Amino acid sequence: MTGKLLLPLLCFACLASASAQAEARKPNILLVITDDQGWGDVASHGNAQIQTPHMDALAASGARFDRFFVSPVCAPTRASLLTGRYHWRTGVSGVSRGMESLRENEITLAEMLQQAGYATGAFGKWHNGAHYPYHPSGQGFAEFLGFCRGHWNNYFDTTLERNGTEFKSEGYINDVVTDAALDFMRAKSADPFFCYVAYNTPHTPMQVPDAYYDAAKARGLDDSLAAVYAMCENIDHNLGRMLAWLDDSTLADDTIVVFMGDNGPNTDRYNGGMRGRKSSLHEGGTRNILFVRYTGKIPAATVVTSLAAHIDLLPTLSELAGVPHPEPARLDGVSLVPQMQGAAPGADRMLFELWGGNRAIRTPQYRWLREGKEPQLYDMIADPAQANDIAADHPEIAARFDQAFAEQVLPAVDVWTKPPPIPVGHDAAPVVRLDGPESILSGGPKLYGKHPNNSWITKWTSTEGAARWDLNVVRDGTHEVTIRYVCAKENLGARLQVSAGNASAEAEVTQAHDPDYLPSPDRVHRTEVYEKVWAELILGPIDLEKGPATLELRATQIPGERAPDVKELVLRRIYPAESRQESAPPSFSALLQRQDLGCFGSIVPGCRRYMSPPFV
Length: 616
Description:
Layout: H1 7-21, E1 28-35, H2 53-61, E2 63-65, E3 68-69, H3 74-83, H4 109-115, E4 119-125, E5 143-147, E6 159-162, E7 165-168, H5 173-187, E8 193-202, H6 210-217, H7 223-248, E9 255-261, H8 283-286, E10 287-288, E11 290-293, E12 302-304, E13 308-309, H9 313-321, H10 337-340, E14 351-355, E15 358-362, E16 366-370, E17 375-379, H11 395-408, E18 422-424, E19 431-435, E20 440-442, E21 446-447, E22 457-458, E23 466-473, E24 477-486, E25 495-500, E26 503-508, E27 535-544, E28 547-557, E29 565-575, H12 588-591
Parallel strand pairs: 1-8, 1-9, 2-12, 3-13, 4-5, 4-8, 18-23
Antiparallel strand pairs: 2-11, 3-10, 5-6, 6-7, 9-11, 14-15, 15-16, 16-17, 19-29, 20-23, 21-22, 23-28, 24-27, 24-29, 25-26, 25-28
Helix pairs in contact: 5-7, 6-7
């Protein structure tokens, strides 16, 4: 046996040794990560157009990393952060349709800390898998509030998930997430806690409360820049709320605080003159913010100039907390504690990245890329803006990097070749939601919009069309199948059938439901889909047998122009009955029995400024 299954036994030996060395309470950890906030979206990095006093104060009170690197997009960064490993080793190779799912045998920071007696909570955007064992509850977090997809439709009065149950939130999403994180830290203040706060801004859609937006506009910024900086300033406000609580509760000196971003900026804006932005393997797409404060252990005003990366956070926090990793040889990252305590930079380190078929290496002097047939090479000391490609002048250096990537990365690539099967049948997960974008479509139906996250199946005009979901049924059972749909009156009478093996269920759509998009308080027109309220139709029960299965949805009758648009299928197990038993805190084995109950729902906007979407 390897990986996660050995964690309890390995950790027992590791923690027994650690506990003998340290009698004092272990430090709390507050780790805050933002979504699409670039290196330049903080005042202390030279941006005079943004106001981030709490971020700036945090940087001044601990260590600020001058060369901290992440992946060029969201899910890979999170996978590396949580595991201390490059994302291509963890299964993560995309940002949607299941390709963002973190493999179940990965040992996460949350699991390590939970085994060491930490209370663990995740709040905000997850983006490393929506179904157990990829869901936060299967990756070491006993408490979760937020959503699982790569982005969310609306940020005001939206529908979120808490430990598998959907609820309608009130207020702005960052404020709601912060409230939940504060409640968690208050409730767990007697124990060491790991509080992972993952804000989903300034990722689009560009929505933010009026006070922040109006203040940014008053500084003469255009709508897009004002919205981005306003969202960052709201993050700063909420960071300040958490730091103030740590001060008031006298836990500040006993808490490690980490603040970071997940990739380059999502628009062209101030980024220190670097080339590239989000999705780019150039410097501007991968260099980001990292501030770390641990009073008494990390001197204030420390500036770390050596290379650091997302893969280093787990080993760093592991050392600071005194919680050894059970399989240190699996780690790609290194502890940054020596650098934060004044040690000189180490050897000529190489940081690797693989994204979208493109390759990159960063060393203290060079950035090498291969985005096509010809390599690119830049001297980052002499040419930090990457204006001059010197690969042709130094073919021997470019060749050395090419060889290093081929030898050290390519043999270790272990990503999903297709979306992983969706687990169905866990005792703790009687409800499983099969998202439309997770399906394999054939015969005509398409996904709506540009981005798969939160999209739906549309343009279903032929009975030859089908949507198929690959399942991993872990236990025999009977499941009630419900479809969430919209259907114009002229398309009534369509019959929808779901089948798996020899079992099937079918129903006719007799209730029209064709609402407009919900109003959306966007400051700038979005590229993501807008939200609708979806109707529900029970197709009937279906038996699923243990083992791999394919669930297929077809329209057996289309009397109108097309079949209904389909948001998702919902499987609710009705036999055998749920046998879930709650315990607090849950054991490691209990965590392996929990699964996401879904991360979708309609929203109700809550801001005085609205832009109505185009109707397509």
